[in-house]
Each structure stands twice: as C-alpha cells, then as structure tokens.
Amino acid sequence: MNTQNKRFQTFDPNPSLKYVTSLLLEAGITQYALIGKLAMWVNLDDESQHQYTKDVDFAILLGDVEKIENLVKKKQLNFKQLRIGGIGLRESSINVDFIDRRLHGVAPLFHEAIEHATEFVSVEQESIPVVALEYLVAMKIVSGEPKDDHDLKILLSLEKLNYGEAKEIVVKHLGPITGERLEVFARAANILPKHGPYRHSQ
C-alpha cells in the first residue's frame, strides 16, 4: 500500500469555539460550560494525552436547546438532533454539540455542572467556562461508552481531582450503583485502596 499521500485526521476547535460564543450570545443564552474532550485538554498538562476529537461539546440548560435550534433554523445552518438530548451543529469548519442530557433524568447533573463551572479558557478575547473536573468525572461515567471509560481512568489519575467530591456528585445524580462503579475505577487507579482512606485534594 502506498502511504506517501496519507494524512492524519486533525481538528482545530478554535473556529467552533469562537463561533459558539457569538451564537449563544445571539440566542440569549448565558449559562453553559465546555465539556467533553476539550474540557479534558484544559486539565491535562501533558499534551500527548490530548486525544483527537471531531467536535466541541457544550453543556446547556434544559430548555435552551429550543433557543439554539430556532436560531440555527433561522440562519439555515445544518444541524442534527442528538440521541442523548440536544443538537449538533455541522457547518463547514464548525462542529459543535449542545448537550442537555434530557434523557434518563441526567439533566439536573448538567444544570449543576454549569452552575459550578468557575474555571475559564480564553479563545481570542472571549472567556469560556469549563466544567469542573469532578463533574466531568460524573459525565464520563454516565456515558458508559468505552472511550469515556478510558477518559475516566485518565481523570482519576490526576492529583488535582477531589475524589470525595466527585463521588458525592455521582451518587447524588446517578445513584449508589453508579457510585459503586466509580469505586471500581478508583481502586484500579489506586485512589481507593482495599482498606483505608481515599486520596483527595485539599
């Protein structure tokens, strides 16, 4: 096989991030948070761990999806309905998912995560709120997909994670069974030993 002209996939998130800030402002939406792979990038100092992603993910409040959908229809932009709740905008170099997780009662987790997003990332002159690490853990474990389980293992290895807080969030919003599943990952990451206290940030 001739590999001379093969190219690796790349995705520059900056056009999407820049466009989203203006789109949300035009839609009258002020409460949202960056989630997904890019939120992981913010928390991973080692850029070799910045795995490829094909889009930008934002958590939005339940009910705000309709505002965005009405606006993108008015602008005649290409979009799709997301199975988990929300819409995906697909327009030229713009790849954004606006997620509210309205299914299976997970919307309150996203609502609370948005309220507690106190860290920001700068894109040109815009500041974009980023979901807190502990809420990102909960979002990863609720997915149940292999790629998110892989991300969860990476997040649990971070010293700055407050595991106790993450566990409380998971149990509160996802129930004790999911909390026990988190413990399995925590034991594998040596956060939660078989006997004794867990490690947590102060």
What is the CATH architecture descriptor of the largest domain?
2-Layer Sandwich
As a percent range, the share of strand residues is 15-25%
Gross morphology: globular
| Number of DSSP E strands | 7
Give the helix proportion (percent range): 40-55%
Whole-angstrom Rg:
18 Å
Briefly note the structural class of the backbone: alpha+beta
* N to C succession of SSEs: HEHEHEEEHEEHHHH
Order of neighbouring strands in the sheet with most strands: 1-2-5-4-3
How many helices? Answer: 8
Return residue spans where pLDDT drops below 50 for at least 5 consecutive residues. Answer: none
What is the mean predicted local confidence, pLDDT? 84
| Measured distance between first and last alpha carbons | 54 Å
The largest β sheet comes out as: 5 strands, mixed
For this structure, the CATH topology of the largest domain is Beta Polymerase, domain 2
CATH C-level class of the largest domain:
Alpha Beta
Write the layout of secondary structure elements.
Layout: H1 14-26, E1 32-35, H2 36-43, E2 56-60, H3 64-74, E3 79-81, E4 86-91, E5 94-99, H4 107-115, E6 119-123, E7 126-130, H5 133-143, H6 146-156, H7 163-174, H8 176-188
Helix pairs in contact: 2-5, 5-6, 5-7, 7-8
For the structure shown, list the relevant keywords.
globular, alpha+beta, 5-stranded mixed β-sheet, Beta Polymerase, domain 2, 202 residues
